[in-house]
Design goal:
Order of helices and strands: EEEEEEEEEE
Shape: globular
Helix content: under 10%
Distance between the termini: 40 Å
Number of helices: 0
Strand content: over 45%
Number of strands: 10
Oligomer: single chain
Radius of gyration: 13 Å
């Protein structure tokens, strides 16, 4: 059973940083690209960043570029999202998922507010 467990969210002031983590299970992690998505209140879920199976290639949305860094540790089956210079508009529930998968985890709430 494919599963994703996100953690690391919280309340942070504008300009602050957070590091999100995602524990993946139920599949051969090192064989798949992974992604982070987010969903703000009353908005569609949107892609934030992706990373190929060995971490050699990454993609960032325009809103994430230059501030967020996606990474992975295949030995630990973990995906990460380092978020710096956070803005109130980054407030959302953040989800990780395997590229091509359809089942989502619970996500982790990120709130950026003073």
């Amino acid at each position: 059973q494919v599963q994703f467990v996100e953690s690391g969210g919280g309340l942070v002031q504008p300009g602050g940083s957070l590091r999100l983590s995602c524990a993946a299970s139920g599949f051969t992690f090192s064989n798949y690209g992974m992604a982070w998505y987010r969903q703000a209140p009353e908005k569609e879920r949107e892609l934030v960043a992706t990373i190929t199976n060995r971490g050699g290639t990454t993609y960032y949305s325009d809103s994430a570029k230059g501030r967020f860094t996606i990474s992975r540790d295949n030995g630990k089956r973990m995906l990460y999202l380092q978020m710096n210079r956070l803005k109130p508009e980054d407030t959302a529930v953040y989800y990780c998922i395997r590229i091509g998968a359809t089942s989502w985890g619970q996500g982790t709430q990120v709130t950026v507010s003073s």
